[in-house]
Amino acid sequence: RDFSKVHGSVNFDPLGRLIMKGNYYDSLEEDFDRCKRMIETTANLPHFTVITVNSRNFHHAGSSIMQELAFSLSAGVEYLTQLTERGLSVDNIAPAMRFNYSIGPNYFMEMAKIRAARHLWASIVKAYGPSSDDIARMSIHTETASWNITVYDPYVNMLRTTTESMSSVIAGVDSHIVKPFDSA
Prior knowledge:
five-stranded parallel β-sheet; single chain; 7 helices; alpha/beta; 184 residues
């Protein structure tokens, strides 16, 4: 079987759960042990991520672009730290991670956010001593924002999602979701 043809992800984010709900799924120890097992189980799937940093939580809570970057990257560092302490190598952890960002209406700043995230994440991962620069590549998924859509004029939402999607595509994300114009 050619496992390199398998592309996908699992949206497992214990830190995101802690931020949104105030508690882990089980506990800090159990959740990060589960992260370790998931990475080990999917080690033969090079295009499959299991750990997610849901930066969209920060975006939807009203953080600025700089705050969103800072919070998401610090969450990524916490995953790297917790999992390296459990015996995994950065070579195994970083490729198994994906960052989910929401893209807002600020066209050029959203492009800059994605590019800055890639650059900063590469610097962070390189500090952990990966075996190659490819390990430091950030996997990014984006989706159009939900806080700025309107019920009263759904057709204006098409313009908003088009602008947001263009920001994502030009910034070079790995995957993107365009929410329906009438989703509100």
